[in-house]
Write a structure and sequence with these properties.
Layout lengths: L3 H17 L11 H10 L2 H6 L4 H4 L4 E6 L14 H10 L2 E6 L4 H13 L8 E5 H9 L12 H6 L16 E14 H4 L18 E4 L2 H10 L10 H16 L3 E5 L3 H6 L5 E5 H11 L4 E4 L5 E9 L7 H11 L2 H11 L8 H14 L3 H11 L6 H5 L1 E2 L6 H16 L1
Parallel strand pairs: 1-2, 1-3, 5-6, 5-7, 9-10
Antiparallel strand pairs: 3-9, 4-7, 4-8, 4-9
Amino acid sequence: MFDERSEQTRIERAIARALKEQPISRRLFLRRTGLVTASALSLPAILAACQAAPAASGGAATIRWANWPAYIDIDEETGGYPTIEAFQEATGHEVTYTEAVNDNEEFFGTINPALDAGQSTGWDLITVGGWLIERMVRLGYLQELDHAKLPNFAANGAELYKNSWYDAGNTHSVVWQAGITGIGYDRDQTGRDITSFEDLLDPEFAGRVGMFSEMRDTLELAILSLGVNPADATTADATQAQQKLLEAAERGQFRNFYGNEYYDELAAGNLALSIAWSGDITQMQLYDNPGDVQFVIPEEGGLRWTDNLAIPNGAANVDAVHQLINYWYDPAAATPLSEYIGYFTPVAGIAELIQADADEAREAGDVETADALDAVAATVNPTEEQIANTHEDAPLDEAQEAEWNALFLEVMAG
């Protein structure tokens, strides 16, 4: 007979052991004490997932997960992912984690043929933007989630990230992380503060400006610069924004149009300023740039976005995938993740737990870690001011999306 209490004790020991054995990274946030304490106390997501004891019963599965670069905690000595390794040891499942998403549209292009043909994409779990979730739901490409298997989402999910415009009722997706699209800049290169979208078009910075290859980010920021909310924008508005961008592109204003690789260009000093994602600049400030890199929401407004966990058609081991999704909504997993990557978390109460880790570090005399955790605690939830000055993506239908994409392709070609 399965003994749930003894199994829970076994799982708790496994989680604590897996996490404790990870060497401390140069990234200060994976502090051994705080992570082990949180994980050993309670991981109901893991415990619930393990009630059938998959490792002992032969039910272990492989989960193939496509995510974006630099979007999970990493042990830089081993190259491993401590929170994933804890999940694996506790459940017996194997997670094949691949940084396969560089740009939403680009990634969709790699899986669309298989989905259209009714075949497996090769992925069991994908992490993509909200507008792409809406498209894939519309095309019938995503499996419905079984929320009975996601109790942590119901218990711990922040209300801001539930029941979105792109997936009402979270029928097909839940949020992985969220953030803001604005401007990242190196003040050592710009010589002044950047405050406006117009700064991206200033001839002073010609050839040193990065734009995004995703239409939604670049074109919608340009639409905001016209004083129009993207959610209310017409194709005429999009055309006006396109002309503004096209004029700048044709005179050589932009170094390039980037996916996630803009990060390395900005960190290396090849860009003075760029459209940027908020959490990336948090990471860059702490780890990867000796200069004065800043993030700003343009005074005209920024974009508030989400990346989401979803199960594509043809995925295998769907029960195990639900266990992994549920795991990320446990604060014991969500806290070290947020401490490492610094994006907005969809899990309630994480800022307070990070602050508690900061206070513990300060009491122990580790001021450097405490200061870093203080900074991250302030970044994992949007402020009222940020929400007021940021906007969600335009809910485009298929015809509008095609029109806007055609407009943007002209800009990239210019």
